[in-house]
Amino acid sequence: MDRMASQRTQLSRRALLATAVVVTGALLTPVVAQAAPDPVRALEQAAHPLRGTEPGRGHADLRALGRMIGEAKVVGLGEATHGSHEFFTMKERVFRHLVQEKGFRAFALEMSWPAGLKINEFLQTGEGDARAIAKETLSGSPWDREEFVSLIQWMREHNRRNPGRTVHFVGDDLGAPRVGAEFFDRVTGYLPALHEYYTGLRPLDDVFAYLGKPVQERRRLAERAQQALDLLSGLPRHGEQFEWAVQNARSIAQTAHFLTLDPADPAGLAEFQRFRDQAMADNVLWWQRRTGHKILVSAHNDHIGYVASDPKAYPKTQGAFLRERLGPDYLPVGFTFNQGSMLAKDTALGGDWKKFTVDAARPGWNEHTLDRVRHRDYYLDLRTAPPTARDWLNRARPTRGFGTQYPHPLADVALARAYDVLIHLHEVREADLPK
User: Fold this and answer.
1) The pTM is what?
2) Mean of the pLDDT values across residues 13-34?
């Protein structure tokens, strides 16, 4: 073999060896893993800045949000805390836009079905006072705040000006904390024979006292409430009054079943939370299908998203049930925030709503990266974000989500798996006490 041929053979052997080293992973020199690309620039490409969160502003900055919502019939709008001013005011601002530009007709809140009916009757008739109605129906809840008085007042004024295109208020949650005797009358007034089925359950105006009953007694009362629903819904009757009587009986049965929960048995809590989210979805669907209204559903992020931040505690969300039943006609919008204050309780049951403040998000949290986007407040479509942003949004990492109780550990959330659209706010403050 001549010298040139020998050199060619050696080069071939080296090339073959190099290939083998790469293929087998037996690298002779260490390779430093490349860091994931910074998603901030990609997030900025998708972000639409907000002029503010206060209602009453123009809607030009919300037009892109309207395009994202498209033809959805039900939109879930979350909140990362249960008591921050900007989440509440932004809900009114978005609802006004959806009413005026997208034909939405109902606002649903995770409050009791009976209380929602009282608010809705005020909206339709104008009889009473918005503040008095809000105090009666929202007392003790995080929504007993000036921001929701404002929402109710705007809805009533809209109805006064638009008698042929009125908006409605829906309480989609279980009947607790109070279901007065007058609500039972909405059922027994249609079928008086049901009086006996509600003996011992009517009125249900103090849920904590009711939970003091032995669990076996609560189960018996829940069975009777279900029997009343089955009897009523099995009647060969139809029409407006019948449909309402059945739905109201369903609300009573839902609440009675939920209150068979044993607070001392944490193992059963997840199943009851699943039942609650299904009941909320069922109530929204009943309203939507009966009326044809497009509905904005207001609840905590953990209820409106496709998945909750803690799937063990919330195995299937209201949003998941709605998506299952409505397909693309349901669209969830989540909320995140960087820093600020909120209202919460320091005990799981009872207690007062108190102000708590949290500092800026830490590196490694979703909110820390989201807050590096140059806009102070903004929203983006998680479905159509650039690939780099999508990759980042599909990875789970610590995310703030405070409900009734604080402190509460952070959970890992993949934002794009939970929501279709995200609104990020730089700073929030606690909601305002009613005047």
Assistant:
1) 0.91
2) 38
Show the tokens assigned to 235: 């009647």
Q: Would you say 361 and 371 are in contact if contact means Cβ atoms under 8 Å apart?
A: yes
CA 435/CA 432 separation, integer angstroms: 8
- The span from the first CA to the last CA of the chain, in angstroms, equals 100
CB-CB contact of 329 with 71 (8 Å): yes
Strands (E) in 12-134, as ranges, are 48-49, 74-77, 104-112
d(CA 213, CA 110): 25
Q: At what angle do helices 240-258 and 269-291 cross, to 10 degrees?
A: 170
Which run of H or of E encompasses 55? none
**8 Å CB contact between 295 and 287:** yes
Tens of pLDDT, residue by residue over 284-334, are: 999 999 999 999 999 999 999 999 999 999 999 999 999 999 999 999 999
- pLDDT (0 to 100) of residue 263: 64
Give the tokens for residue 191: 């079928």
Question: Alpha-carbon distance 148 to 298, whole Å?
Answer: 12
Which among 16, 102, 414, 106 has a CA at the least distance from the CA of 288?
Answer: 106
Q: How many CB atoms lie within 10 A of CB 247?
A: 20
Task: In whole angstroms, give the CA distance from residue 59 to residue 104.
Answer: 15
DSSP at 141 = S
CA 172 to chain centre: 12
Report pLDDT for 205: 86
CB atoms within 10 A of CB 101: 14
Separation between Cα atoms, residue 100 and residue 56, nearest integer Å: 12
The confidence score (pLDDT) of residue 348 equals 66
**Tokens 């706010």 belong to residue:** 425
User: What whole-number distance in Å separates Cα of residue 286 and Cα of residue 292?
Assistant: 10
